[in-house]
Each structure stands twice: as structure tokens, then as C-alpha cells.
Amino acid sequence: MTDTQAGEGRGIHVSGTFTGNAQTGDNSTAEYVSHAGGAAGAEGESAEVLRLREAVEVLRRQVRALDPAELSSAEGTAAESALAEVEDALPSTDEAGQGRVRNAIFTVSGALASVASLAESIRALREAAAPWF
């Protein structure tokens, strides 16, 4: 193993098909980039799916803007992963997709429960996810 300076020589190269989440970062800092097959707001998505996608994006922006003292890196990582899971499961209406959305909403809610400034956004996310429950 070689020692690599923070931010140097790190990256992900994907050759072929990739499904799931990939994350790189230093010092508990990471950037989430979605390369899903369908674009958010794709034609034919229901109003419920679009509403949930918007709630996910609003909450993601707020989580990223938090001061590290407000949210531990473990909670932030769990929340980011769960938000990505919600997006990955949409617009699925089958039981497996609905289960993925439900589990991710529970994970996000639990990871962010201690952050008072996010209470309104978490409530909006839960309301937007109501059709999956």
C-alpha cells in the first residue's frame, strides 16, 4: 500500500455497466454524483415521483450545507446513501421498489433526527413518500 496525499490520485474508473453508489472522499468529505439511467423528472413520471425527487434534492442540499458540528460524518454518510437509495428506487411501483423507498426513508429520518434545523425538510420528505407506505 502506498501513501497518497489527500485529494491526489483518487478516483473511480468504471468500464462497462455500473449499478449502485460510488463514493470517494478525504477526511469524511464526499461528493455524491448520480449517473442513473433515467433523468430526474423524466417524461412520464407521476406527480408523486417528481414531488419525492424534489424533497430528496432539497434535503440533500441542506445536509451538505450543515456545519460538521451539527451532524456527524457517519450520520451524514448514512443520510446521503439513503437519499441515493430513494432516487435509485424511483419510479418503481413494484413491491421491491416500494420497500427500498420505505427503508431509505426510515434510514434518512433516523440519521437526521437529531438535527433540529432539518425537521421541516424531513417532514416534507416523509409526506412526499406517503404513497410508498
Topology:
Blueprint: E1 25-26, E2 29-30, H1 47-65, H2 73-89, H3 95-112, H4 119-128
Antiparallel strand pairs: 1-2
Provide the residue-averaged pLDDT: 76
Cα-to-Cα separation, first versus last residue: 46 Å
What's the count of strands? 2
Portion of residues in beta strands equals: under 5%
Number of helices: 4
**SSE order, as H and E?**
EEHHHH
Largest sheet: 2 strands, antiparallel
Descriptive overview:
- The protein is mainly alpha-helical and 133 residues long.
- Helices cover 48% and strands 3% of the residues.
- It is built from 4 helices and 2 strands.
- The radius of gyration is 16 Å and the shape is globular.
- The model is unreliable at 34-41 (pLDDT under 50).
Key traits:
4 helices, 48% helix, globular, 133 residues, mainly alpha, two-stranded antiparallel sheet
